[in-house]
Design brief:
The protein has 411 residues and is mainly beta. It has a domain at 134-143 and 158-410: Porin. Helices cover 10% and strands 49% of the residues. It is built from 6 helices and 16 strands. The protein has a 16-stranded antiparallel β-barrel.
């Protein structure tokens, strides 16, 4: 690996990219990235408008009790982020390797949401290639189009959610599952976003209904209608601390059944047939509020988030959902970069889905609790201990106890 990087550094002057002449003098445990300035490659690319970030995240999770199977697996992700021309284009590629315990724990509650990308098989794919253009001179309105990664988009709205590589690992703890029928993992689309003080305040997007994490998406573009998402966010203050209230709605014009595949979760088909319905919809409200901020160090804080969603019960396996979580940073003295969180979620399954499965596989609503503590071993290495208690949707399975370790390295 060192030889490859050194060869790249030697070739950059031929491409007109001149690496920095002075080596970074930061110690290994102090630098922001494991590789520092990457032999001058990183600052050299930045001078030409290219910002490169590589992240390696490894997961070790086991179902200690309950669930479908008591087992443990190791897997991981390598994320490649490239930002061009100060955000004009953002590329996100992902490599998935190893295994996960999603199906062994509770198929209708993704206990490791990040391992859903690019798919359940080990592969490398471009899951996001988004282009952004200012629509107004003050850049308050941005036009966006391309291949959009849903977790990246949601993480832009709420950075504390962390895409599953920071914060909670179970998607139900930080992502409203009622959106999943009308919002694929990755999709082709376009829209306009309203920006307020660097944050997304509102927007309207039109996009394809198919998941395109491992494909270009053009082969079956809009052959099952179009999806539309609109949102608006009201910023507020409570006790002098910032908060917000987001209202979001989605609508899809295609034809669906409650059993149609969703790459977010596993829905057992067991040979059942459901009637096709035209159109699908969902509604969502998200509350975000800072509860405490250290006046001497803004990084030390406690925040509250709660999400409440409804969806079309004839086409979505989730009729309604809610979650509430507390996340904190720097509460332990001398550990300002450490984070922790506690969350509860409830996912109400569609009555149509329960009726279909009732005679062969009785289903219950899902609920669960997740706790995590993420320790900043160095600025570039974070180690997280995670425990989840999930009441599965399959009535025959006992409550799943899922233990996990997650290590994220900023390369």
């Amino acid at each position: 690996m060192r030889r490859i990087l050194l060869s790249l550094a030697l070739c950059l002057p031929l491409l007109g990219i001149v690496p920095a002449t002075e080596a970074a003098d930061e110690c290994l445990g102090c630098r922001e990235y494991l590789t520092g300035d990457l032999f001058g490659v990183r600052p050299g690319l930045a001078e030409h408008g290219v910002v490169a970030d590589l992240q390696l995240t490894q997961f070790y999770q086991g179902v200690a009790d309950g669930g479908a199977n008591q087992t443990d697996n190791y897997g991981g992700k390598l994320d490649y982020f490239f930002t061009f021309a100060k955000g004009f284009a953002v590329l996100h590629a992902e490599t998935r390797f190893g295994e996960d315990v999603v199906l062994d724990a509770a198929g209708l509650a993704p206990v490791n949401s990040n391992m859903l990308y690019p798919g359940l098989e080990n592969t490398t794919a471009i899951t996001g290639l988004q282009f952004n253009l200012p629509l107004t001179s003050d850049r308050e309105w941005i036009g966006t189009f391309g291949k959009i990664n849903t977790l990246d988009l949601f993480n832009t709205l709420y950075p504390q959610t962390g895409r599953g590589v920071d914060g909670f690992m179970n998607g139900a703890a930080y992502l409203p599952l009622t959106l999943l029928r009308t919002l694929p993992l990755s999709f082709l689309g376009a829209g306009a976003l309203k920006i307020h003080e660097g944050q997304i305040q509102g927007g309207l997007m039109v996009y394809d209904s198919h998941n395109s994490t491992t494909t270009s998406g053009f082969d079956n573009l809009f052959d099952n209608g179009a999806n539309v998402t609109g949102l608006w966010r009201f910023f507020s203050e409570f006790g002098g601390l910032p908060g917000s209230h987001l209202f979001l709605g989605t609508w899809a014009s295609g034809d669906y059944t409650v059993l149609d595949r969703m790459d977010w979760v596993f829905i057992p088909g067991v040979g059942l047939v459901a009637p096709r319905e035209s159109g699908s919809w969902s509604l969502l409200y998200i509350l975000e509020q800072k509860l405490w901020v250290d006046p001497c160090c803004e990084k030390r804080s406690i925040g509250l988030m709660s999400q409440w969603g409804l969806a079309d019960p004839k086409t979505s396996p989730y009729a309604w959902c809610c979650n509430v979580s507390l996340q904190a940073q720097g509460l332990v003295a001398g550990r300002e970069q450490d984070t922790m969180g506690a969350g509860y979620f409830y996912s109400g399954l569609s009555g149509d889905l329960k009726d279909l499965f009732g005679p062969v596989l009785p289903l219950n609503d899902l609920q669960g609790v997740e706790l995590y503590y993420s320790a900043a071993i160095t600025p570039w290495f974070h180690l997280t201990a995670d425990v989840q208690f999930v009441q599965p949707g399959i009535s025959a399975n006992d409550t799943a106890v899922v233990l996990g370790l997650r290590g994220k390295i900023d390369l």
